[in-house]
Design brief:
Elements: E1 10-17, H1 28-43, E2 52-56, H2 63-70, E3 77-81, H3 88-100, E4 107-114, H4 149-164, H5 168-182, H6 197-202, E5 205-207, E6 210-211, E7 220-229, H7 230-233, E8 241-249, H8 273-284, E9 293-295, H9 301-310, H10 319-323, H11 341-344, H12 351-362, E10 374-378, E11 385-391
Parallel strand pairs: 2-3, 2-4, 9-10
Antiparallel strand pairs: 1-7, 1-8, 4-7, 5-6, 8-11, 10-11
């Protein structure tokens, strides 16, 4: 065990989110304030008690802007983590570090984006080139046709299929389970839109072998959580989701940019999530056999599939058989993305996964796992990643 880590010192005391839509009609600051105020009301904490804010490095809302919008007190801590989807669990880790080091007592962690009507993600950087590539390193890959995250993950998926024999019908289970769970979640964008295997197989092939329904949604919305000490959280309005462990990892030889440099590794299928899992489980004193629900980052179906192996739910190369055997269902061995995740609830860059992990601990999920007391939440695996484990009191 890494004896520098202290278990169960902090907890998530409140969660909140705005409506998820294709067109919010309001600013990202307004969305962030909606989610943050909802999280504070959920916890029973007055906004004036907030003394810390952590945001995503791709958020357009500054910590000061959110503090102003919600009526926070004196902010003694503010920070950010990323890049992008790698950030949310690392953002919670920053809040924990701020509290454990005495820099803050009540920290709001948020992500807000008008991902459909405003600043859309996943578009080619070649559409708006910047001298030096804005440190994304996309300029080294664009000339060879690597223009979007969808193309990047299609290359990863094709290599995985070539090496393991994964079929499109097996991969479809990621999208189908997410959609099934979203159909029970009234706040999900795909709440009333059922999907069959025929729908999946008949959808447009966007970048072989990934179809339309292998991609995440585009969403306007925000999610937020309130982190404080476990001792204090036990006296607040909701049952606390205790943070048993948090971890971040880059893997050996950290790589720059957002994701494309991963293709320069000796094995592009080797993601930092494998190293993150090792640290996380060691710190938690738990293993994959102890996890009751798994909220895995799913910008694409293949992204979630790789993490199923990296977090130890099946052996390397065996995820195809694992997911087609019903293990992702609420009554399976690894209940997966029980709110619908990015593929069917909404794309809030992984922050909605943290919220759903808390709901499972409280017993408030629309797809509640019976007796759930341990939630795994992960962030995007490339180029670096983060994850956390929540437990009940």
């Amino acid at each position: 065990m890494d004896d520098r880590w202290q278990r169960d010192v902090c907890a998530i005391a409140g969660v909140g989110q705005s409506a998820f839509s294709k067109y919010s009609g309001v600013s990202v600051t307004a969305l962030a304030a909606d989610a943050a105020l909802a999280a504070l009301a959920d916890a029973g904490i007055d906004p004036s008690e907030v003394d810390g804010v952590v945001r995503n490095d791709m958020d357009l809302v500054s910590c000061a802007a959110l503090g102003d919008a919600i009526g926070a007190g004196n902010l003694t801590y503010y920070g950010e983590a990323g890049p992008g989807g790698s950030g949310p669990c690392a953002m919670v880790a920053q809040a924990v570090a701020a509290i454990m080091s005495g820099q803050a007592k009540t920290v709001v962690v948020f992500r807000s984006l008008n991902g459909r009507s405003g600043n859309r993600f996943g578009l080619s950087a070649e559409l708006d080139p910047v001298i030096g590539g804005a440190e994304t390193f996309t300029e080294f890959f664009g000339p060879y046709g690597l223009l979007s995250p969808g193309i990047f993950f299609a290359l990863i998926a094709q290599q995985y299929m070539n090496e393991t024999g994964l079929t499109s019908e097996q991969l479809a289970n990621i999208a189908l389970v997410a959609r099934k769970h979203a159909n029970n979640n009234p706040t999900a964008q795909m709440y009333d839109r059922a999907m069959t295997l025929d729908d999946y197989m008949g959808s447009r092939m966007l970048s072989t072998p990934l179809r339309l329904f292998d991609y995440c949604l585009e969403t306007d919305g925000a999610s937020a959580v309130v982190v404080t000490t476990t001792e204090r959280a036990k006296d607040l309005r909701q049952p606390p989701a205790i943070i048993r462990a948090v971890a971040m990892a880059s893997g050996p030889r950290p790589q720059p940019g957002q994701m494309y440099p991963v293709l320069m590794r000796e094995n592009p299928l080797s993601m930092p999530s494998r190293y993150c899992a090792e640290t996380l489980y060691t710190r938690a004193g738990l293993g994959p056999q102890d996890i009751d629900s798994a909220q895995l980052y799913d910008c694409f179906s293949i992204t979630a599939l790789l993490q199923i192996e990296d977090y130890g739910f099946c052996a390397p190369g065996e995820a195809g058989g694992f997911i087609e055997s019903g293990q992702l269902e609420v009554d399976g061995a690894m209940p997966f993305n029980t709110s619908g995740g990015h593929m069917s609830e909404g794309y809030i860059h992984g922050m909605n996964h943290v919220v759903e992990g808390v709901r499972q601990i409280r017993g408030h999920s629309s797809n509640q796992v019976a007796g759930a007391s341990v939630s795994l939440v992960t962030s995007a695996p490339p180029p670096s990643t983060a994850a956390l484990i929540l437990v009940s009191a």
